[in-house]
Structure formats: C-alpha cells, structure tokens
C-alpha cells in the first residue's frame, strides 16, 4: 500500500467492479495489493475471521487510519517565508507546490500570503503599493490594481 488507505481501497474497489469480482474473490485479490506493514497486518488475521469484503475493508481502514494525510488549509501558507539563501524563483516554486494542495485558498489570500512571505525588496514594495489583480497576474508580472 503506497497511498492513503481510503484511496487504496477506492482504487481496488473500482478495479474489482470492472472485473466483476465476487465478494470472496475481492478478499483474496486484495491481499496482492498490500505491501510491507499492510501485508504483515493481513498475515496476523485469523483464518476465516472476516466473512465479507466489507468487514475486511472496514478492519483495514480502521487499522491504517493513522496513515491518512490530512488536507492542508490556507493557514499552512502563512508559515512560508523566503529564506535569505533562497532565490525568488525557488520561493515561487516552493510556494506553488504547497498552494496546489490547498483548494480553499482564494486569489486574495494567495496574493497576501505570498507577499508576506517575501523578503523585503523591490518586488515586495511593488506588490504592497499596487497589488496584482490575481495570483496568476502576480506571477506573470501583469497589470495591478490602482
């Protein structure tokens, strides 16, 4: 299992539906999708302790609930600051990588947080004086608000 438990199970169930696996076959085939600790956990289960795939999937999700990654929110962006040794391009790349994981971040929040994360300089002063119309405009150096 190299993904989050829910995602792993969802991918498997979609494949099982496509192949029209019976409940019994699902239980057997699911084992082949498990690696490392998930396989070890499976090997500790008593024979015939799970009668239906639903029982097995619920036990699986319960056992690996701590492996779930939690959705970041826009507050995660507020800790981002451009380091002294970091170029503007590197900061933009890092900021964008984190921002992609945050669907709730509005353009205004993105602009504000990005600006606050910058080291002082020409760009910072320019953005404070005339904020861009959108985050994409900020990155492209496009027209700004008056």
Walk me through what this model shows.
With 146 residues, the chain is mainly alpha-helical. The chain has 2 domains: 5-67, no CATH class; 74-140, no CATH class. The protein is 55% helix and 0% strand. It contains 8 helices and no strands. The longest helix has 15 residues, at 5-19.
Task: Calculate the mean pLDDT score and round it.
Answer: 82
Number of helices: 8
Fraction of residues in H or I helices: 40-55%
Supply Rg.
Answer: 23 Å
Number of domains: 2
Along the chain, the helix and strand elements come as: HHHHHHHH
Features:
55% helix; 146 residues; single chain
Summarize the structure.
This protein has helices at 5-19, 23-30, 36-44, 53-63, 88-99, 107-117, 122-129, 135-140. It is an all-alpha fold and 146 residues long. It folds into 2 domains: 5-67, no CATH class; 74-140, no CATH class.
List the helices and strands and how they pair.
Blueprint: H1 5-19, H2 23-30, H3 36-44, H4 53-63, H5 88-99, H6 107-117, H7 122-129, H8 135-140
């Amino acid at each position: 299992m190299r993904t989050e438990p829910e995602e792993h199970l969802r991918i498997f169930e979609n494949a099982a539906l496509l192949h029209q696996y019976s409940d019994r076959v699902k239980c057997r085939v699911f084992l082949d999708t498990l690696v490392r600790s998930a396989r070890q956990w499976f090997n500790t289960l008593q024979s015939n302790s799970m009668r239906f795939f639903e029982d097995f999937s619920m036990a699986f999700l319960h056992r690996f609930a701590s492996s779930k990654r939690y959705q970041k929110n826009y507050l995660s962006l507020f800790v981002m600051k451009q380091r002294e040794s970091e170029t503007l391009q590197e900061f933009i790349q890092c900021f964008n990588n984190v921002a992609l994981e945050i669907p709730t971040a509005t353009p205004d929040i993105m602009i504000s947080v990005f600006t606050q994360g910058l080291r002082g300089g020409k760009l910072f002063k320019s953005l404070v004086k005339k904020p861009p119309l959108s985050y994409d405009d900020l990155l492209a150096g496009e027209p700004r608000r008056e």
